[in-house]
Design goal:
Strand order of the largest sheet: 1-2
Number of helices: 0
Helix content: under 10%
Radius of gyration: 24 Å
Length: about 180
């Protein structure tokens, strides 16, 4: 049965406001929902935020999540990526070397995979208990490229008290060199 109208409203209280599921787990829907909009395809909110603000603070997006006190968007996966973003076509040269799982994955063939910007905070922060907090590698370019226009140094390495090394670098010997 198909129902067509100009809008659907669910007032609750109910555990789920909109539910689309198949009566057979063997043949679920190909798409559980299709939502098309001018500013956002899906707008979801928690914390008693009922309607999207009249002046959108985001650029147009397929999905917008907002909250005053909790996560705006959250993704979990135990076998793939929690959240994935892709610009253009999927990259092919490094595809065999990409990890099969990550919390966040950014993919692009001819653009930056991930871009971070902050006016006053740190652009990227990495922290790990047992491994490198930030790692970079490249086949032909720099593994890590750092530039500062007005700061004291492009890269700063520092260690707290203990046996740690603030900065170490290793370059494999070039073929034919006297190493």
């Amino acid at each position: 049965m198909t129902t067509t109208t100009n809008a659907f409203v669910a007032n609750g209280p109910a555990r789920i406001g909109f539910e689309a599921k198949s009566s057979s787990s063997r043949n679920p829907f190909k798409f559980g929902a299709l939502a098309v909009g001018h500013s956002a395809g899906v707008y979801s909110a928690i914390d008693d935020i009922a309607l999207p603000p009249t002046a959108t603070i985001w650029d147009e997006a397929a999905v917008v999540g907002t909250s005053n006190n909790e996560h705006g968007v959250f993704g979990i996966s135990w076998t793939r990526y929690g959240v994935i973003g892709q610009w253009g076509v999927k990259p092919t040269l490094l595809q065999p070397f990409l990890p099969a799982e990550a919390a966040v994955m950014g993919l692009a063939q001819d653009a930056d995979g991930v871009v971070v910007a902050s006016d006053h905070g740190v652009g990227v922060t990495g922290q790990s208990y047992w491994s490198s907090s930030i790692s970079g590698s490249s086949t032909y370019g720099f593994g890590v490229d750092a530039v500062t226009e007005l700061g004291d140094a492009a890269i700063r390495a520092q260690t707290i008290e203990g046996p740690g090394t603030a900065c170490s670098a290793w370059l494999p010997p070039m073929p034919g060199s006297l190493a």
